[in-house]
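Sequence in, structure out. First:
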Amino acid sequence: MKLLDDISNKSDHWSNGPADPPNEEMVGLLVPKILLLIGIPDKEISKSYPTTGRRDPVDYAARLISTENSLEFSLQPKNPDLIIEIKRPSKTFIDKGKEYFKAVEQLNRYFAGSKCKSVRFGLIFNGLHLQLFRKHDQLSYPITSILSTRRENIKKTISILKKRIEDFQDKRGSIISVWNNKGGVGKTSIAQSLSILLSRSKAFNRFDKNKILVIDYDHNQGDLTNNCGLPIGDGITKELLEKDIKDELTEEFDFDKYLSVFTNKNRKPKANFEFEIKVLRADSKLSKLGEKYSQYFSSKNKFPLRELCLKLSKRFDYIIIDSPPNYEQSIFSKESIMASDCILPIGLYANKNSLINFAKFAKNDIKDAQIARFDGGPHILGLWINKWRRSWTERYTRECVQDIIESTNKEDRLELERIFYKKFIRRLDLRKITERAEIARCIMDSNGLPGVVRFNSARVALQSLLKEFVE
């Protein structure tokens, strides 16, 4: 109880604007107390941990689990699980302004450090508010909302931190929705191709390759299911959702009965590019259910697909959802968004509407979705512009993005800049998937293999996107 009082007293005092403004060192004194409350003792905490060689130190690092034979982390810090970046209270987080984005960007830079490959969590803390992030391979995203440390909130904040760390201790997979509010931008091709490429990659400190599940939630079209050479399901996803409501999806449940395998292993002639992913096919019975979907499944789960994916994520490293467009009109589009940890937005080169439609969603709809979830998600990753090519329309596309950002109010502008731009050699640039006809190519003969399997040029075009997830 005393630790809670110490933290809340300081937070309450600093929030009133004391005569002597606190600095990072004063805020840092609260870090060991917060970590102790979530179950991390002093011996497992190190102050000023170098993230790259002896340089670029993060303020604190900690180990979540120690063994009998391990040295105290505070004496010999190595392979931390958690890093903490400290800011003074004047660097406010709650309005998600410039100081907040700077703190998150700095945390992500530390995540990428050569001595932080083992890190699974990151925390930003300014004495008044904090937020917890997850690091999964090269991917990072918030797993809490921005939480207060004031007296009336501190108990709940500590409880949320403990629960979220516990939820991710088993290294569950990340749930990614490939999406845009506009159709025809290449979402299905990217979802299928990314899934295949991820299945051939290995995570840090692991010898086995990533286990991938791709979910076709566009039940009205089922293009991904068709592209995998599989028949549309007749009630398989609906049955899984029903069993989840009845609490039948236990640890021993045989999910493989409901999942199809898409692979070119053991085919003749022998493939040089072998892969294997699992597929949860589009469901004709859910398609017929349509807008009655929510009413049908709302008896227990507010977000039924989210609950199903959380159970499946214990068996897979990544779950990729091929999501339909039309967030306002399609219940399956909303479900895909609400199910995801992260949204991977895909725009279309020289297509103004695909960029404007996503910007509208990012400004108007995502906040309501995050409030409804209250766990930091769904988080929007950077937008990738598909089918990029060098032509006179390149300038048009760049100007279109700039117009969208400049016409946005100040409160949303920083978030849109984060989504549309990446930093590249000290200047802003767009994320691009170079146009390759081979990416969307799927020869539906006896092999039925997508372009990313058959053509090296398709794999090369997607390497930059893949590096956002794995090394």
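Second:
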Amino acid sequence: MLLNDAWKIQGVREKSSNNKKYPFKSLHGFRKFFESESQKYSKSINVSILLSHDIGITQHYYKPKEDDLLEDYLKSVDLLTIDEEHKLKTQVKELKQKNNEKEYIIKGKLQEKDEEIQSLKQKYESDMK
């Protein structure tokens, strides 16, 4: 109902001349987009369950946990999100992780060099005595 009201307020969806049908279905496009994009990374049976589709006799045997459905959904969040914020947050997180890995490698190499310098100093001092 919220979407129907929003369409009407914006003047996007008006009844046709016979006042019985609308020129397009208000939710079908969203559901179709969700289904198409989600099936790229998720099990199609889980997508059907998330869309509240009837999965036939399988529903008696296949009962996924909410965590499994959530995990499948989260795999396709980037494809489903129109706003770039989630994608950018994920990208920042990945870049921070790569930066931390590089810092760890650099610190390790610096420590090796410091140890090498110390050993050379000790060797030099022992040779000088």
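Remark: The chain is about 70% helix and 0% strand.
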